[in-house]
Amino acid sequence: MTDELKQPQRRALQYWYVDGTYELGFGLLCLILAIYFRLEKLLEGSWFLALVDGSLVLVFIGGGALINWLTRKWKERVTYPRTGYVAYRSETGLRRKIRLALGLTTGGLIGATVAVLATLPFRDVDIMPLVSGLLMGMVLAFLAWRTSLPRLYLLAAFSTGTGLALAFAQLGNYTSLSIYYLALSLGLIASGLVTMILYLRESPPAEREA
Are the C-beta atoms of residues 146 and 13 closer than 8 Å to each other? Predict the structure, then answer.
């Protein structure tokens, strides 16, 4: 693909992240996960823990769907009236069903992996914050590569570094995961707020600008 074709696609992708709502939404999801893993720590040794473990996929999918809805509502009310609307291609029919099935399967596999790895003894290292830090770092680095947004590279490095530090802190998997997702949520929310403030300053409402 030539540069002439890549540039419009990259700008369209960047526009989704221009107002900071992605980081704010992702940060809220990480905050939910921090509370979830803190709850798991409090319930450790209880029969209720198995039920909470099994609900991780619902936390991922339900929380993600809610935050995606809130993000779209914000863009409809604030972003699009300021700088215009970009129509992204929506998936329908078989492709949408396949994507939903992949999401459910991925969420289930992540939940099962967390439940299994959290119970396995690893000497001198808590494996779950390490895995989470690397996975989230890879996701953010991939988004940074696709959008060419430097702040996402910084968040990817922050995720990886925090996961590595907590892996060797020997605080326990549940405690380390709770701290990791809390730290990542604060980093994402801080990035989102700064981006949103700059965006609102530089993009006044159309009526006021006129």
Answer: yes
Residue pLDDT, tens place only, 57-111: 677 777 778 888 888 888 888 888 888 776 656 555 566 666 566 556 655 666 6
CB 13 within 8 A of CB 147: yes
C-alpha 75/C-alpha 106 separation (Å) is 28
What's the predicted TM-score (pTM) here?
Answer: 0.78
The owner of tokens 């430097």 is 150
Token pair in block for residue 142: 């991939």
Bin 148: left if φ > 0, else alpha if -120 < ψ < 50, else beta: left
Residue 58 CA, chain-centre distance (Å), reads 15
Whole-angstrom distance, CA of residue 183 vs CA of residue 178: 9
Q: For the chain, what are the domain ranges?
A: 11-203
Inter-residue contact 126 to 170 (CB < 8 Å): yes
For the chain, how many helices (H) and strands (E)?
10, 0
Give phi and psi for 176, each to the nearest 5: -65, -40
Rounded Cα distance, 114 and 127, in Å: 10
